Amino acid sequence: MKKTVPDLALFGGVPAFSQSLHVNRPNLGSREVFLQCIGEMLDRRWFTNDGPLAVELETALAEYLGVKHCVLTCNGTMALQLVCRGLDLQGEIIVPAFTFIATAHAPSWQGLKPVYCDIDRETSNIDPEACEALITERTSAIIGVHLWGRPCDTERLEAIARRHSLHLLFDAAHAFACGHRGRKIGGFGDAEIFSFHATKLFHTMEGGAVTTNNDALAERIRRLRNFGFNPQGVMEGLGVNGKMSEASAAMGLANLGMIDRLLREAKTNYQIYQDGLSGIPGLNLIIYDDAEGHNHHYVVVDIDEDRVGLSRDQLLAILRAENILARDYFYPGCHRMAPYDSAVQGDASRLPVTDELASRVLVLPAGGAMSREQIKPICAIFRLAIAQSHTVRSMLSSNSGVVMDGCSSVI
Ligand SMILES: *Cc1c(COP(=O)(O)O)cnc(C)c1O
Fold it and tell me: Following CA atoms 82, 83, 89, 94 in sequence, which dihedral angle do they give, to the nearest 10 degrees?
């Protein structure tokens, strides 16, 4: 355990970890199920195009999520693009800027213009009131993001969408196995999309899904996903290749069979962090509502610089020097990133809560194979740095050899 500020790797100490700890090391699920499915796939020589593994996974996921239709895709970005096409969205969509860039890129790739909406300070999710104020005659949809898996205010957003005859979508990439008012995320709005990227709690290496209770929309998306062919193989119009391969579906079945264990492990990791970081003034772990049901996949801390004595970026540099690769998700917000930054420029100041939260939060290593033995020293480094923040600050300002690690927002 490090005892003094010079023990910190940023100031020349030995890094706490010889191997890098990543924010979301992939879960493995059941190796046996995965290898068995892959073996069967090889025997069948059926590798994609609605193969039996993909069909089995679609059925199992629809049941698990309590939604009528689950349409698997090659990734979450494609799932969102397919929904935009399937609903024939036009013009503008209203979307939060405090999210992964794909939430904005997918509709933009479909020719839609993202109009950025500020977020609610308590939930970090799209602020319904601010959203309604942005609606114009060009608006066709609202896209909420259940950030860190915490549900959007679906009731108020549904009321707004109804009042203005808009479509309502949710980016549920973070929210697998999360709930809201007794229902699982997946069946809200016109449709929700999931990402099953390797870094997500439930994953298929690369993959995603559209979930919806709308029969016609699900059918349309199935056709769009398969180049525009209908089930009889007749070409009906412009489509794309958005299918999930059998190998990815095998990974999904291997993970879904273990989902209760994966959720338990995530919650345990979260609780170890919660214990280890409790009582540090100005450092607040984002809280999840157990009554709603949560996956505890993201361990997010909010840094109040005035009380902590160090900035989020200074803490990030301290952690990264120890090979603790914490991230500044989703700094600086989509509205301040290319290609959207040029369009908003001065206008960007109307997202004050987004700007503030994006500069305050830090996402810590969690996910598959993180252990108590790894989490405890991470918490101890926070305690040491914050208890000695005066010394850290003065060493940072006097020590020109210290390199503040750059912060980027890539998964
Ligand atoms: C991961 C993620 C996506 C993108 O999903 P891919 O499967 O990587 O295309 C979209 N939105 C959010 C909020 C994400 O975290």
Answer: -120
Closest residue CA from atom 2 of ligand 1: 173
Residue 180, strand partner residues = 183
Q: What percent of the chain has pLDDT over 70?
A: 95
Q: Whose CA is nearest to atom 7 of ligand 1?
A: 76
Q: Which of 176-190, 234-248, 281-295, 363-377 has the lowest mean pLDDT?
A: 363-377
- CB neighbourhood size of 396 (10 A): 18
- Ligand 1 pocket (Cβ < 6 Å) reads 75-77, 99-100, 102-103, 145, 171, 173-174, 195, 197, 208
Q: What does the buried/exposed string (b/e) look like for 269-302 if buried means 16 or more CB atoms within 10 Å of the residue's CB?
A: bbebbeebbeebeebbbbebeeebbbbbbbbbbb
pLDDT, tens digit (0-9, with 9 covering 90-100), for 240-269: 999 999 999 999 999 999 999 999 999 999
- Residue 263 has a pLDDT of 96
d(CA 168, CA 94): 10
Please state the atom number of ligand 1 nearest to the C-alpha of residue 78: 9
Beta bridge mates, 366: 24
CA distance readout (Å), 71 to 66, 80, 83, 86, 144: 14, 11, 11, 12, 20
pLDDT score at 408: 39
CA of 172 to the centre of ligand 1 (A): 9
Q: For residues 109-114, give the mean pLDDT.
A: 98
Task: Give pLDDT, residue 221.
Answer: 98
- Report the relative pairing of strands 113-117 and 92-96 from DSSP bridges: parallel
pTM above 0.85, yes or no: yes
Cα 278 to averaged position of ligand 1 atoms, centre (Å): 30
User: Ligand 1: which of 101, 146, 192, 195 to mutate, judged by most atoms within 8 Å of the beta carbon?
Assistant: 195
At 348 the pLDDT is 56
